[in-house]
User: Fold this.
Amino acid sequence: MRQFDPQPAPHIPAPSSVRRMMLQVLVALIPGIAAHVWFFGPAIAIQLILACGFALGFEALCLKARGRPLLPYLNDLSAPLTAVLYVLCLPPLMPWYTTAIGLLFAIVVAKHLYGGLGHNLFNPAMVGYAVILVAFPLHATSWLPPASLAENPIGLMSALEAIFTGGLPAPLSFDAITEATPLDHWQNGISSGQMMSEIRQSPVFGDYGGVGWEWIANGYLLGGLYLMARRIISWRVPVALLGSVVILTLPGSLIDPDTNPLVMEHLFTGGIMLAAFFIATDPVSGSTTPRGMLIFGAGVAILTLIIRRWGAYPEGIAFAVLMMNMAVPLIDRHTRTRVFGT
Amino acid sequence: MSIDAPQDIGQRFWRFHGGLSLRHWKQMSLQHGLEQAPLPAQLIVPIDQQIGTPAELTVSVGDTVLGGQALTRRTEAHHVNVHAPSSGRITAIEDRPVIHPRLDCQRCVVIDTDGEDHQTTLPAWDHWPEYNHEALRERLAEAGLAGLGGALFPTHLKLDRSTEQPTRLLIINGAECEPYIAADESLMRWRPEQVLLGAQILSRILDAEQCVIAIEDQMGEVENHLRQTLKALQIDNLAIIKVPTIYPEGGERQLIRVLTGDEVPAGGLPQDLGVVVQNVGTAAASYQAVVDGQPLISRVVSVTGRGVNHPVNLEARIGTPVWFLIEQAGGYTEQAARLVMGGPLMGISLPDDDRPVTKASNCLLTMIDTDIQPVAEEMPCIRCGKCSEVCPAALLPQQLLAQIRGNQLEEARALHLDACIECGCCDYVCPSQIPLTQTYRQAKHDLALSDLAQQQADRARDRHEFKEQRLAEQKARRRQRLESRREQPDNSKSDDIKAAIARAREKRQAAADQNCDATESQD
Assistant:
């Protein structure tokens, strides 16, 4: 007689893991990040390394404090992913301490105080971003112009100096090197009575979005399609989000094109693409039911457009996501599927 | 779709929610064919091999039996017999380790075989169409037929014509969708005539409007064999339908959905839709039981997986020990790490191989370390929703898990936990490697226990209330009797005596009242 160790069914293990999923998402972000580096210089790369370091550090501290094993959780790549998404939302020359504070709120407050991986109510990267946007409004809105338009492109050394000392090499100053984003231009221009055609005269506008920005958005789109093809993310959130943007902005841009940006401009400026494929698709803080995902995506789109049009901030993605996060328990409860045979 | 509308089954397929495309692994055992397993020296036959209470045992230790001789007597309508698989002497009737989803041991008849394999059969009904459906049903129960797909539901109960709903469709289920298991496929490939004629018998018992055999679209060779046999037997009222291979399509409810578009109501039965599903193995065994008079004493078992040297499909006597069949398949390989009865998704993992195969044992699957090694350790649920994408019952496994882990079992019930068919699809896609099916199984069990406790509590309360009421009534009756006696004038005694008694009673009453007041004031 031979003995075996009996185990409950099923007997073939799942071929996937949290780590593999997160890794796929990180891989899918590469085209967008590469476009970022190409158009805006290497500063973002420094910021990414710095942020990942902080994120893993805070993650380790929290795990230690909560008496959890370090390895499986540090290995799951969820903290680096949060860090990367956080960095992609902010200007690349943010001082190092803002990055530390942002990730402190993202990892310690938004994630671990709510119970760690899988338990956070809010999207950690968006919590970190929102805190920094409110606490350091000047830094958080000081975007660089695309390198092709800049009089003094920021190189690696100047970027390092700016991030770690808060200052810039002698002839440069923040006022001189930063530039309003396309979204700033819309908001300022429209509120001061300019026509869209006049606003588009600014050199920051490219073919259908901002110069450089439109290519970053294309990168995110490419990565997002990859994730959808690999079934890492459901098609529902991106389709609902982007579809809602189209439906909501189409009438305005057709009826009154002088005061309303075009649909393409909405899609390819700001954080819409990033949010559609990488932020609103965060499984933990998003809805899990099929209809819930559609509602969640559409809700993010509606709130973002409201904030863009009437809000105090030029971009409303983060607040839109956080507000929809709050609604998730309610959405999930009311969008349950019909069970087979009932 | 309305039930009355005549439909061409197989013209189109309906989708069921979710499911998985899994690698088949069936060729592993099919390439070596269907062989006859030799007779072991000892057969261990569990008495309970059906859903519902088993039939009454009629043999005792020391009896000699013939192969095919009934060991039981049917005393209730749902009973099916259990037979001695071969000739020999009964050396023990005792609890032995068995293969069972919940129990470790069950009462078994242990037969030391004499090697002669003397057989007895029921009368052979070559001209079976001459017999009416009740006689045929009775024959199946006598011959020990129970669902060979693994559920062991008494076959004759599913063939009851007296239900409200006439049977519009009989499906012979050859869509054995779980990987590795090839028992049904080997029957269809090497004994197609038994399957097809058995299907005819079942169809006739039910008076079914239509009868189809559902096979998977990957079973090309099987289709050819079945079609050739249909032609040779000149059967024209039986359709062979290839259904898309999606696990768990072989599930009764899923298969009905795919073929008819209808959903069996939760808590209901296929019969409610006028549909009956019988397994291919059951059809073949029905043929043997009716035409040859051969009781169910053997079945086809796939002995397969990378843990045996020579995977093969074996026709084995019921009661053959697992280790004996493993030996027929070339013995274990060095890396054999897990032994499973059934498939890799729903099978029962066995603690040892000294247990007999039963009418439910379709596959003995041996797995090696690399088959069962998880790719990561268990992590918290990240709510990715993959589980609900693949759930064939369209449940929300992630919400179920949250409720169960939060001890909200009633909430889980409200989310239709009982609709879970424990197919294991959610486990297979969970990136956090959470043992979901096991959690649901346990929760169902806990709910059943708490329901039982609730029932017992209810019964105890009812009993208590009944007792209280009975005592109160008794008291009331006694008081009534006393009062009525008091009111009746007693003429037998003189007035003087009565007056004296009355005086005494008053005195006593006064004293009692005082006492009463005293105790009351003490309160």
In short: Chain A touches chain B at residues 1-21, 72-73, 76, 78, 116-119, 234, 283-284, 286, 288-290, 293, 332, 336-342 (CB under 8 Å). The CA atoms of residues 186 and 192 of chain A lie 10 Å apart. Residues 18-40 of chain A form the longest helix (23 residues). Residues 212-335 of chain A form one domain.
